[in-house]
Amino acid sequence: MPVNNKKPVTFRPFKTPRYAYDKLRICRRCGRYTALSEDRCGQCGRAALTAVEQHAAALAGRKMHTRLLFILLLTLGAVYFGQSLQQMALCGAGGIVLAGLLFLTQRKVRQNENLYALYALLGRSIDSIRDGLEINRQEAVSVLRENDVLAYEKLREISILLRGDRVSRQRIALLHGFQLRKDMQLELEQLLLKDFEPLLAEYIGEIAKVRPELIKDRTLRYVKTYEVQILQMDKGAAILTAVAGTAVRLKRYALLYSGMIGRYVAELPKDRFLRLSRMIDASPYEAWNGLDLKVAEVREAKYRWDPDF
């Protein structure tokens, strides 16, 4: 798709949560799970959505209260059935002490109790969570024709929890229709697929131009794995050259992917080639696997009289 046919867009700010489950919410009314930032439950329509961590903490709190209530009921029962005033007083005092110790203990372990309740909730609700996320995905796809940006934003939220090539392919297909800019909140490694996808290869090529710092080990391995298929694409050589140019940002990448870089070194922009040349000159005894010789050949052929070299 030509660049001038792509749509200029602006994404809403998105912050990746510390833990994936931070995106997950549950409806207190119907129990449906969602990863979308919606105000009301999509199933029952109630404004009863709450974070799963808060819901688990509430469940843990109820269990703690139940334990305390049980101790107090036992204490009342012991007092009621006491044979004498002294026995009733001892039972009451003992029950109060026991309840106090339980209360203090529960306060100390409250954080652990909350965490245990969260893991237990997620464990027993795995099927319901999966169903809720699939409904979220269908909701995102349903708005695609009317608002492709909103569809992408919904899929971006879901992808925190719903991993896999299916969602990634849908996101890549949407990104293919957008104009990418340096100031956009973009992702790459989260979108990598298990097999070759031309749209992903094109996206990697665009990322190499606007956000080269996003191209890291996993992306370089993907490109190296499917180098032959990418080369067969229209502008495939340009994609590979752009990716090779990003690899010379770090010496480690230049060494690991020296073979791939060497195949496109003659086409590297001058600034990338200059960086690589200086990198090799600074470490002449590294195992460059012939990349140093290719760089010397290109330097002699193209930049022999260039004062920057």
Automatic annotation (TrEMBL):
Keywords: Membrane, Transmembrane, Transmembrane helix. The lineage of its organism: Bacteria, Bacillati, Bacillota, Bacilli, Bacillales. It comes from the Bacteria. This is Uncharacterized protein. The keyword Transmembrane applies. The chain crosses the membrane at residues 64-81, 87-105.
